[in-house]
Specification:
single chain, 578 residues, alpha/beta
Length: 578
């Protein structure tokens, strides 16, 4: 598969591995003592890395609305590839050649490591949705093919972003924006949408069928030549004639099922008509190639009696599932019942009347902030609600690492209120408005906003606001011992097991837990050295096939460690200072 190349790619392709793990410092919790919802202020690359120890492989839905890189907007976030923060980052990562990058090169350098971390955070049943316009659509598709896999591409969704076009628009104005969707694993299937009244209006119940409303569908399916056992004659109880599927098609059920279905009219049986030529014509094969062991479904007994019984059924109803249309004179048809249809399939066209538009989003945000336009390009909550619906699950963790005005949290809180769900959100925003706009909007959604007839009732809910804190490791590779010990323990567990840390219920303060029958210990004291010796080994009470123990020093010989299936790892810190 061809991959996209650009200046600086070699510098960023593995840059996510070099991003330091930082701790998340809790600043305040809103509307609760403790919350699983998170709003993080800080660079989203570092924030995504900070989320890995707890959330790798756990995020079912990611929605991001990254910079569109049109080249002429005044970007605020790191949307601006000439923003000082991005220029500084590019200089550190790409080097001097970063000064010569085109805006497309810069945009790709910015996006690639972030997408690499987002892919790690996705659960096996997870999906990422990325809003984008034409400027970077094809570049984005190619790097997503590379990171997520082209076989995990779900769709290029066209969202109708506007409900009316200006008469003075030049060229070919853009009525849609794109949403690229990629799954973590292949064969992901979206949850279906609610059916519309227009769809349901096609279903009637003219014969008072106790199964409810139905509509007429064809009783045949394609590929007769590969399904010759489903190509056979069926005798019409009204005309007495034998009928076959249309040329190239077969009946939609196997013969045993179809025989049972036809017996709802009268008694039928299988007979050998030796109709090889007729069935060969339907199958588009020669007579020599057609199967000779497929019998016809024929009326058993008196044809006139069968005809009278069929007329009575047509007159009084209800008709069986398979019936000949036009009171027995037409083709064999089948009933499709409304109560068996399920929802509406998701297509790649999302019209504004179902998923909102940009004007709707702007008006909503102005209403929430007393008429002030606090954000230039918000998305409507209905758009994110559509994404949440097709992902499914009412206990889903949803991540938005380009949080902007906080639309994703707004949509989640709306849906939780509507269906009683417990979806959780993680928002990341690097700019100062992370608190004054992003978090403030979420507060107003929780509490309610607007006045008088424009008042909107609050959804309820809560969140905790975080800042990015210190790095867990110093530049020399040693532990940053100013970081809380619990955060270090969580980091050690994650680096060893790649699973979220769940503190075990134990009196041993150094025991981290067991994974794949290996017991993990972090024998660490901030103020003095620790030594793995026989005295400490006697305190290890948890049973496992093998053990991995961190300490500053070890006095047990290697042969003895090997005998007890113990791996010793030295704690990375400057012991000369202790």
């Amino acid at each position: 598969m061809p991959t996209l190349e650009w200046i600086g790619k070699d510098k960023v392709i593995n840059h996510h591995q070099k991003v330091p793990f930082k701790v998340l410092e809790e600043k305040y919790t809103y509307n609760a003592e403790k919350s699983e919802n998170m709003i993080i202020r800080g660079d989203n690359l570092e924030a995504l890395k900070a989320l890995l120890p707890k959330y790798e492989g756990r995020i079912k839905c990611i929605y991001i609305d990254p910079p569109y890189n049109t080249g002429n907007e005044g970007w605020v976030y790191n949307d601006n590839v000439n923003d000082p923060k991005i220029k500084k980052w590019l200089g550190e990562v790409v080097g001097r050649e970063g000064e010569d990058l085109s805006r497309h090169d810069k945009w790709l350098c910015m996006m690639y490591p972030r997408l690499k971390l987002l892919q790690k955070l996705l659960s096996d049943d997870g999906v990422i949705f990325i809003s984008i316009d034409d400027n970077e659509l094809y570049n984005l598709k190619m790097i997503c093919d590379e990171i997520f896999g082209s076989n995990c591409f779900v769709s290029n969704i066209s969202w109708q972003r506007t409900y009316s076009m200006r008469n003075d628009a030049k060229g070919v104005p853009a009525e849609v924006e794109h949403i690229l969707a990629f799954s973590k694993k292949t064969d992901w299937q979206p949850k279906k949408l609610q059916r519309t009244e227009s769809m349901d209006s096609k279903y009637k119940n003219p014969d008072n069928d106790p199964k409810g409303a139905w509509r007429n569908i064809v009783a045949s399916a394609p590929n007769a030549n590969t399904h010759q056992g489903m190509v056979y004659a069926i005798q019409n109880p009204i005309s007495g004639k034998y009928v076959y599927p249309p040329q190239g098609r077969c009946w939609s059920l196997g013969q045993d099922q179809m025989l049972s279905a036809m017996c709802q009219w009268c008694d039928y049986e299988l007979i050998d008509l030796k109709d090889y030529e007729d069935r060969a014509r339907v199958c588009n094969v020669t007579v020599d190639e057609v199967r000779k062991d497929v019998f016809a479904i024929a009326i058993k007994g008196d044809l006139q009696a069968a005809k009278e019984k069929a007329k009575t059924i047509y007159k009084e109803g209800p008709l069986p599932e398979f019936f000949f249309s036009r009171n027995g004179l037409g083709a064999l048809s089948r009933k499709a019942y409304l109560n068996q249809m399920g929802g509406r399939p998701v297509t790649n066209l999302w019209p504004f009347d179902e998923t909102g538009h940009t004007d709707e989003a702007s008006r909503l945000l102005k209403n929430m902030f007393s008429g002030t336009a606090v954000f230039d390009t918000p998305k409507p909550p209905r758009l994110v609600e559509r994404i949440l619906h097709i992902v499914g699950g009412d206990n889903t963790i949803v991540l938005d690492s380009f949080a902007g005005s906080g639309t994703t949290a707004h949509a989640i809180l709306n849906m939780n209120k509507a269906d009683g769900g417990n979806r959780k959100f993680i928002l990341v925003e690097m700019m100062d408005y992370a608190d004054s706009i992003t978090a403030e909007r979420v507060k107003r959604v929780i509490d309610g906003y607007g006045e008088g007839k424009n008042a909107v009732e609050g959804t309820g809910g809560d969140f905790t606001f975080y800042d990015l804190g210190q790095a867990l490791l110093l530049s020399d590779g040693n532990l940053n011992e100013e970081v809380d010990t619990d955060k270090i323990r969580e980091y050690i567990w994650y680096t060893e097991t790649k699973t979220p840390f769940a503190p075990p219920e134990t009196e041993n303060p150094y025991y981290l837990g067991k994974s794949n029958d290996t017991g993990y210990y972090f024998y660490y004291e901030k103020e003095h050295l620790t030594t793995l010796n026989h005295e400490y080994l006697a305190t290890v009470a948890e049973k496992a096939e093998s053990y991995l123990i961190y300490a500053d020093l070890c006095t047990i010989p290697d042969e003895e460690l090997k005998r007890y299936n113990i791996i010793f790892k030295k704690i990375p810190r400057d012991i000369a200072k202790l």
